[in-house]
Amino acid sequence: MNKIINQILGLGVGVVLACGCGTTPSETQTETAASHTFQIDASKTIAKVEPTMYGIFFEDINFAIDGGLYAELVKNRSFEFDKPLRGWTELKDKGLGVRFLPINTNNPRNTRFMRVQIEDQGSGAGLLNEGFRGMGLKEGLPHNFSIQVRGGDGKVSAIRIELLDSKGEVIANSRVDGINNEWQTLTTSLTPSKTDAKGTMKIWFEGEGTVDIDMVSLFPTDTWKGRKNGLRADLVQLLADMDPGFLRFPGGCIVEGFDLSQRYQWKNTVGDVDERVVTINRWNFEFDHRPAPDYYQSFGVGFYEYFLLAEDLEAEPVPILNCGMACQFNTGELVPLDQLDPYIQDALDLIEFANGSTDSKWGKLRADMGHPEPFNLKMLGVGNEQWGPQYVERYVPIVNAVKAKYPEIQIIAATGSDGSIFPNGEEEIEYLWKEWKRLKPEIVDEHFYRNPDWFMKNADWYDNYERTGSKLFVGEWAAQSVGVASPDNKNNWETALSEAAFLTGLERNADLVTMTSYAPLFAHAEGWQWTPDLIWFDNLDSYGTANYYVQKMYATNPGTHVIPLEKDGKPVTGQNGLYATATRDENAGELIIKIVNTGEAAVEASFDVAGATIGTEVTAEVLSSKELEAVNTLDEGNKISPRTEKKTLDSEKLSYQLEPYSFTVLRVEAK
């Protein structure tokens, strides 16, 4: 996920599915015009499907948090970006009557506030905040405003707040007063008279003199679960609808940082919001084609909020920690081994924060933040996309310390990025696998960013992996319609269909692959750096891509046990352009079949089911499009979305006609 990728992979890799994997158009039309019969044995078990099988990867890329999931509408609310007034515009007459002076506090957890000196306010003295590509303001909805303020010399008696639409017309206003010479937080509420995705906010100072301000904030009140100053409800709902088994956070390359000074440090993201350390986002400067100089992390969503979100989603929290290495695609900066203790302590303290009693230091902080009950952390990732002996020699002491104190914690190790996109990739991955066989982490994380054709041709990728060692987490993967990190990648139906095909192989190998997640998760329609992405949004609306619906259909139809589904004695891994897997759901008493038709003709699929008596009605969830280049958009968020239909079987044999270019989930009672 960086500039080096473009140098290594200067290639276009979009491959049209056309007529199915490895066939010509005439061959496909001939083959798929006929019926195909598959054999299922519901009495046999290949593997248990773990509750963690399908989950969510979260990284603060593409303005996923500030400007996205975190509902704060004010950008640079604490004046701690590189430029203190980035995101702000001074409102004053020309001349020296009004000055805005950033003051350094010498407090590393709150480095600046803004001093406003008004000698002659003229026609007015104030500041305008532009929001994150504008502010999404909603008609009739109260928006909570707050500001930390301290008066000085003179008499600045009040602050007037205005919300403006995209034309600059005032659509809400209010006022706070009572300013004195002590720091205090003043609050009010504003209710816009219209909805606008490109609103702005002005604050005006009444009177003359000196006033200090900090933490200028504006939140809508329709947040997830109604939590004050919380998360965007529509974005969380899209996650909740996936019924994820886990939530991996906070990344991704953001864990590592461009250098170690910019690495993700979880202790800087907890406690009082105004004491969290604002940090540049490493995606601020990563791509020349998508500069984002205003991309910073306020950490309004920090590790506490991640844990809380995982709890809301009933998903296992899966934090990933820096192991003393910066991104190896960037500086590759290393902490000396004799200075690794703070990184080790961070891991131990994180487990205490998540699971410790309220009598412990970090458990008490969790309780003070509002959650005395433990978060029941079970898994911990050490390093993200690291490789080489430098990784192993830092991984070992961290893991040894964790296991000595918390032997029950499962460790997730990395294999670097996709072997095709980093220097000597395949050799590096082979080296790490030798080390993991020796060190035996519970789980190993593999990443894939490749073209759609690769995913279709490799649905059997894990069929021959060794079964005696670590389980696998396919933690980042997505089909790239053009090329890895290309700004021209699209979330089109071709990519989603290829991912549906590949997932049949992951599910069929559920004895080995126990976790999988698409990446990246979120993207702001005007603030993205990386494509493709699972969910897109602007300041008011959001939608799931075709890729999102593929992931959702797998996650909401997992079953409890993988069972054999074959054609002519072999797994269905692309023969005739078809891919399939089956599970039984012992909780629901149902048989679940997932089947992908990558061909341009319809297919009559029949299933001989042994070991169970099936019911007379089948429920089908179907995701399809005749256009491989079709995409969902903000205007057409459901252009490619699943529909559900029921069919009464006219015989004891289960059959269903598969549409061209389709992914279908069949559920039928099975006793």
UniProtKB/TrEMBL annotation:
<dbReference type="InterPro" id="IPR013780">
    <property type="entry name" value="Glyco_hydro_b"/>
</dbReference>
<dbReference type="InterPro" id="IPR010720">
    <property type="entry name" value="Alpha-L-AF_C"/>
</dbReference>
<keyword id="KW-0732">Signal</keyword>
<feature type="domain" description="Alpha-L-arabinofuranosidase C-terminal">
    <location>
        <begin position="475"/>
        <end position="662"/>
    </location>
</feature>
<dbReference type="Pfam" id="PF22848">
    <property type="entry name" value="ASD1_dom"/>
</dbReference>
<dbReference type="Pfam" id="PF06964">
    <property type="entry name" value="Alpha-L-AF_C"/>
</dbReference>
<keyword id="KW-0325">Glycoprotein</keyword>
<dbReference type="InterPro" id="IPR055235">
    <property type="entry name" value="ASD1_cat"/>
</dbReference>
<keyword id="KW-0378">Hydrolase</keyword>
<dbReference type="GO" id="GO:0046373">
    <property type="term" value="P:L-arabinose metabolic process"/>
</dbReference>
<dbReference type="InterPro" id="IPR051563">
    <property type="entry name" value="Glycosyl_Hydrolase_51"/>
</dbReference>
<dbReference type="InterPro" id="IPR017853">
    <property type="entry name" value="GH"/>
</dbReference>
<comment type="similarity">
    <text>Belongs to the glycosyl hydrolase 51 family.</text>
</comment>
<dbReference type="GO" id="GO:0046556">
    <property type="term" value="F:alpha-L-arabinofuranosidase activity"/>
</dbReference>
<dbReference type="InterPro" id="IPR008979">
    <property type="entry name" value="Galactose-bd-like_sf"/>
</dbReference>
<protein>
    <recommendedName>
        <fullName>non-reducing end alpha-L-arabinofuranosidase</fullName>
        <ecNumber>3.2.1.55</ecNumber>
    </recommendedName>
</protein>
